[in-house]
Each structure stands twice: as structure tokens, then as C-alpha cells.
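Dear support,

Our group has been running a series of protein-ligand predictions, and this particular one with adenosine-5'-triphosphate is the one our PI (initials K.S.) wants archived with full inputs and outputs. We had some confusion internally about which version of the output was final, so please treat the block below as the authoritative record. The input we submitted was:
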Amino acid sequence: MSVYQSAPTPESSAIIAKDFDFWYGDFHALTGLDVNIARNKITAFIGPSGCGKSTFLRCMNRMNDLIEGTHVSGSMSLDGNNIYAPGVDPVDLRRRVGMIFQQPNPFPKSIYENVAFGPRLQGVTSKSDLDDIVEESLKRANLWKEVSNQLSKDGLALSGGQQQRLCIARVLAVQPDVLLMDEPCSAIDPTSVQKVEDLMAELAPEMTIIIVTHSMQQAARISDYTAFFLQEVAGEPATLIEYGQTDAIFTSPMDRRTEDYITGRFG
Ligand SMILES: Nc1ncnc2c1ncn2[C@@H]1O[C@H](COP(=O)(O)OP(=O)(O)OP(=O)(O)O)[C@@H](O)[C@H]1O
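Confirmed final output from the archive:
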């Protein structure tokens, strides 16, 4: 049984997972997840390595569909619609639920083309419209000031932290409702971490953000809600141990395993 402390209500949630399980082939990776993800807030997923944080994150835009032999049970909805229902187009879902990875992965194209790529695919052809989208997206990603006079430069020539913000701009250009961030700061320098955290705080009022992080400090600093996952027995599925408002989880966890993890006793 998971423990909940002032967790989001269904009415205030963008994503709702109910009795959700996930398998990689025969390996039952996640079980019994009941999680409401608050709309336009930042939610952090924490837990030791291998407890299924990334797996659960990737369920939210069906990225795991790309891995052969995976399947799910239970339900997962976005704005009230089951994302695993027949007829849902995963490509369209991934536009609405964008993803940022641990390693920045810009295309080997110019900064401009990286950001214009998605809107072009969506049918935007006007040069001035694309110019506007590129500028706006780079501004929202806190990168515009650094690159506005070098938009034709190769995205891969930027620093790691700049590349990560370019990837964020690329996702923002297609106007997602949800941003999934899988350890987005673990491969970038501290100054860039600060910039990414600042931009998350700026985006959150209009976007639902979920971040997987190994940094307790980062989870405590930036998130509104925190979910703690654990795989207690090797080979057995992981599950949600405790979930709720970040302040409550960090200052008065109700489950001993949460307390042990956040105080650094394991993991
Ligand atoms: N593509 C895959 N095929 C089979 N098993 C996988 C695959 N990806 C992950 N797993 C397994 O699923 C479990 C959960 O992994 P996952 O990467 O989701 O955990 P995590 O909590 O995000 O870990 P970390 O913090 O190390 O990134 C692990 O046992 C892992 O070995």
C-alpha cells in the first residue's frame, strides 16, 4: 500500500495512473501505481537506481512502446482520456507530452533548424512564423540571449548545458502540455543546472512538469510534489511507497523507507 500525504486531487491533475502495472517482456517492472500528477506543477520522482522511475516516466508518453515486448495493465489518462486506448496516436501523444533526456541530444543541424524541426513537421511553412516560433522557444528555454546572433551554428557545437536548453526549446516549439525530464541535469555543469531549474520554475505555471532526479536537494528545491519509488526485492516489481507535497515528504515522511532514503541511509 502506498502512503499519500496531501497528494493532488483528480480534479487538479493532468495525468492520472490507476492500478497501473508495466512489464518488459516477462519482467514485471512496476506494480499497483495509483498516482495523480498535478496540472501545471512540478513533480519529482525519486528512489534508488533501478526502482522504475524512468520506466514510469516513459509510460506517460508511451515511449516504452518502442521497446519490443513491453505491455501495461491498469489505466493512464491525460486530461481525462486514456492514453493507452485503441486509436490513440503515440506520435501525437509525444507532441503533447514532450521529453528531455539525461544526455542532451540535439540533431546535427543548426540551432535554428533544431527548433524549427517540429513546427515544420506540423506544417508551419512561413519563414516569419518559423522565425517567431524559434525566437519565442529559445527565449522560453533561457537560451536566446546566448545564441540570438548565431542561429546558423551547429547545435552540437554548443556547451552541454546549452545543448540541454536547446533540446528544451525544441520540445517547447511544438507547445506540449506536459514536459517529462529524465535526470535532465545530471550531465551538465552547475551554472547550467541553475538555468534549467530557473526555466522549470518559469514554465511550471503553464505546463505540467515531471522530473526524475537522483538529487534530493534538487527535488526539495524545485518540486511541488514528490513520489518515492522502491524495488524492495530484486526481481520483484517496484512500486510507489510514498507520495505527496514535497515539504511533507521531506520534513515528515510517514513511511520509514522514505525516511531512510531521504536521510541517505540507503540508495
Ligand atoms: N529496455 C529494458 N528492457 C528490460 N528491462 C529494462 C529496460 N529498461 C529498464 N529495465 C529494467 O527495469 C527496471 C527499472 O529501470 P528504470 O531505468 O526505470 O529505473 P530507474 O529508477 O529510472 O533507475 P536509474 O535511477 O538508475 O535511472 C530495472 O530493473 C531495469 O533493469
